[in-house]
Amino acid sequence: MRLAAAELLETREILPGQWIQAYHAPELATGSRAGQFVHVRTGDYSGLVLRRPFSLNTADPATGVVSIHFRVIGRGTEWFTRLRPGDAIDMLGPLGRPFEVDPRSRHLLLVAGGLGMAGVRMLADEAIRGGRQVTLLFGAASAREVYPSNLLPDEVEYVVATDDGSLGHHGFVTELVPAYEAWADQAFACGPSPMLAALAGLAAGRGRRMGVATLGRKRGAGRADPTGSPAARRKAFLQVSMEQNMGCAVGACLGCVVMTTEGTPQRVCREGPVFAAEEIAWEAGW
Ligand SMILES: Cc1cc2nc3c(=O)[nH]c(=O)nc-3n(C[C@H](O)[C@H](O)[C@H](O)COP(=O)(O)OP(=O)(O)OC[C@H]3O[C@@H](n4cnc5c(N)ncnc54)[C@H](O)[C@@H]3O)c2cc1C
Ligand code: FES
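Predict the joint structure of the above. Result:
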């Protein structure tokens, strides 16, 4: 984790109220991994004290450029839209624990709901660089909010669901998942909590439904890795990126905890934001 200078290179509204901003921040572009986030300070004239957390949407070590993708919902996010190329801000990061991909996984299923795209977008880049196949299922309320396909790598299979049926599958993005269960070696998701909870339910029943398809698969059987360790998460079928309101983002204020099935509070900013789905006590309504 470091405090890195970031110079705005490009800012554009890709959808109504949703922006992508590219920053030259070589210290962050090198060594950041998909699933991690930055904590960004707004300028003095914003009147805001707390930094704002954003997923690293992309990070390119070759050019030193990182990007964030955000929706304007309050004063902080509105402040960012007023920045112009050449403006400098500072970013604290990379923070949090990344997605863990099993080296044996060839087929990755990414599931994003709305702004959850920002949470999984960088994983698509990493996976393709690693020679993996990626299918990305994306859910939005309507066609007006569908992430543009031209902002994704060409290699990604992109499947859209809209609540009102105005584009793609008519219904929730979770309804698309069963068709990919047998194909996917692992799944990674970011989006609204009800979506993540529904996916966790599907993943929990997957072993039963897969039947013989799981025969011959051996995910580190025989040795129990400690819950929450990178090794344990790497073996999970589904990993989720959680978003909680944050204060410090460095583990000190306990403002971001979620509860695990073992009854242990976990800080989203330190032990997360990525968790194995089976770690989280979903019935608590996170
Ligand atoms: C690890 C992490 C990664 C994130 N990544 C992204 C991202 O990539 N893109 C993006 O658009 N947003 C992301 N968020 C959410 C983003 O940080 C908030 O939208 C932002 O801080 C709001 O700031 P604001 O000053 O505009 O709004 P505020 O004035 O602070 O808040 C406006 C309203 O939004 C609510 N709110 C604020 N933060 C959150 C939150 N985290 N979850 C739910 N409701 C919230 C507030 O309660 C309030 O009602 C992420 C959050 C976390 C914890
Ligand atoms: S935001 Fe302070 S502990 Fe996570």
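The CA atoms of residues 46 and 79 lie 7 Å apart.
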